[in-house]
Amino acid sequence: MQIRTQSAETRRGRVAVRTIGVLIGAAALIAFSGIGGRIMAATAAALGRARPSTGSSVGTNGAQAIARSDFGEMPSLEGGLGWINSTPITRESLRGKVTMVEIWTFACINCLHALPHVKETAERYREQGLVTIGVHTPELEQERPRANVEAALKKLGVTFPVVLDNNYVIWKAFKNQYWPSVYLVDRKGRIRFHHDGEGQYAELDEAVALLLAEKP
């Protein structure tokens, strides 16, 4: 699994893994050449896989796991700099609905790997009532302008609502740490599933189905 994480000092945290320290040093040296970017990407992938999954797990006892899971009330979606693909959506307007919130940014390779699966889940359950919201929290300067985000959403085929979280207000409200992170919220406004990074797509799909099947 691969994840991008934020450091309070640099907003570009990396997992420290002693066993691949040599690879990191080699990649740093080669970064000045034309193949440096590819070496760095491979090293980052190895680093990401070294970190275990976080959040809830569904698996064979999915119904029981979801029934026991409660990560607290969904934070407010206020504080963004604007919405794309929708008028502003409030936390209160989502009561009575199952909601999938993904915190991501368009130039994050891990986000791009996860996005097709998020889109697939969003579309599969849309007619059953699932609401999908993207929280676009930029890491790089090029990810901040609204025009760049709009162009990226169009290119990536993202049609669900996206709020621009340039000031990390929503990121901090969720106490989020990684790109990407997915949160599932039940009809009562409680976070019932949370996963950081890539992977666990089948578990995410199952969790959505279970929450939709719960009686209001």
What report would you give on this structure?
The protein has 7 helices and 8 strands. The chain has helices spanning 21-30, 36-50, 62-68, 109-126, 146-156, 169-173, 201-213, and strands at residues 4-5, 83-84, 99-104, 131-136, 162-164, 178-179, 181-185, 191-196. Mean pLDDT is 80; it is low at 7-54. The two termini are 34 Å apart. Helices cover 37% and strands 15% of the residues. The radius of gyration is 18 Å and the shape is globular.
Q: Which keywords apply here?
A:
six-stranded mixed β-sheet, 37% helix, alpha/beta, 216 residues
Distance between the termini: 34 Å
Class by alpha and beta content = alpha/beta
> What is the helix tally?
7
Unreliable sequence segments: 7-54
State the major sheet. Answer: 6 strands, mixed
* Strand order in the sheet with the most strands: 2-5-4-3-7-8
Cα radius of gyration in angstroms: 18 Å
Write down the oligomeric state. Answer: single chain
Work out the strand percent: 5-15%
